[in-house]
Amino acid sequence: MGCSAVRDVIFVTFYFCWVQWERLLSRVEVLSLELNKPDLWDDPVRAGKISREHGSLMGRMKEVKAFERELLEHIDMLKLAQEENDQELETDSLMALLRMRRIVKEKELEALLSGEHDPCSCFIEVQAGAGGTESNDWASIVMLMYKSWAQRRGYGVTVVDEMPGEVAGIKRATIKVDGEYAFGYAKAEVGVHRLVRISPFDSGKRRHTSFAAVAVIPILGEGFSHVQINESDLKIERTRAGGAGGQHVNTTESAVRITHIPTGITAQCQNERSQHQNKSSAMAVLQSRLDQLEMTRLAQMNAQHTQSLTDISWGTQIRSYVLHPYRMVKDLRTNYEVSDPDSVLEGDLDDFILSYLSASLDKDEEN
């Protein structure tokens, strides 16, 4: 490894230490002021939260100091090895610096996924835009893309609800994605996805533009739900499950649709084996939607942004997938693009997601 690579290792590592240190100092200073307020423990819940965060950050400060000491030791050893022409020591020192650079990259990723709900599993919902069969087919392609992406990452994928189109594709569908940081990654996909292609449904082989909207909802879990659901506020409808599935699916009322009367929010499930399981899955979706609605309301009160279904409109295009007259996928928020749409539609989304998360982190730092 040449001198330029060594400088790169040192620069990136020092940059990480400095940026982390500045952030930690700033936050610890704010928390220290809060801890010194005489009325802090008038609100024990808030006080406990502040105290725990302060203790956690103090621990992270120790980690950064230890990281910096180790870095300087390896730099000194590298200088000594070069002065004494000790190839073995130089190699060991460079390997140690490369290991530290890998740690830096891991820490950078942790910084990208530092949101309160980022560690949660999530629901991904896809809804076809106007355009009938064209958009229904595009929506099904988008949903398959997310299933493939989730499976690539080792996440569990369960189809919760699916409404097929009259001719092809889907009008809407919801999947549950189980895994650590599923929401943290998938939240980058919220918005409208636009497809340009020669239509396989047009006998004239004309070019068509189709749209599909994507929503991502965190699954907060029992201990984190914001909204208490009262049974008296629910309207529960049981219907026959549609689609293929044999005699049992088509003759029993196993599908469940639940409406939360005060808000009008609905959830349904028809893909489980029994009515009880469908009801349980529909309730999980409903709980997450109500939690998200409450988080949106609280965020609006504090003039903060949140990812939610209410943020989706047909004007919020985030990505274009062009298959004709050229081939390209481009994220309109970051300008990141690739010339291989097939790999993207097969679930290769991580570069788009990380590009967006990095840009979001940089924007937060500017503000």
TrEMBL record:
Reply yes or no: does the keyword Protein biosynthesis apply: yes
Which UniProt keyword terms apply here?
Protein biosynthesis
Query: Where on the tree of life does the source sit, at the highest rank?
Result: Eukaryota
Q: Which InterPro entries match?
A: PCRF (IPR005139), Pep_chain_release_fac_I (IPR000352), Pep_chain_release_fac_I_sf (IPR045853), PrfB (IPR004374)
Q: Name one GO molecular function term.
A: translation release factor activity, codon specific
Q: Where is the Prokaryotic-type class I peptide chain release factors domain?
A: 240-256
State the organism named in the record: Lithospermum erythrorhizon
Fetch the NCBIfam families from UniProt.
Answer: prfB
Pfam families cross-referenced by the UniProt entry: PCRF, RF-1
Q: Which family does it belong to?
A: Belongs to the prokaryotic/mitochondrial release factor family.
UniProt KW Cell membrane keyword: no
Its protein name is Translation release factor
Task: Kindly list the GO CC terms recorded for this protein.
Answer: cytoplasm
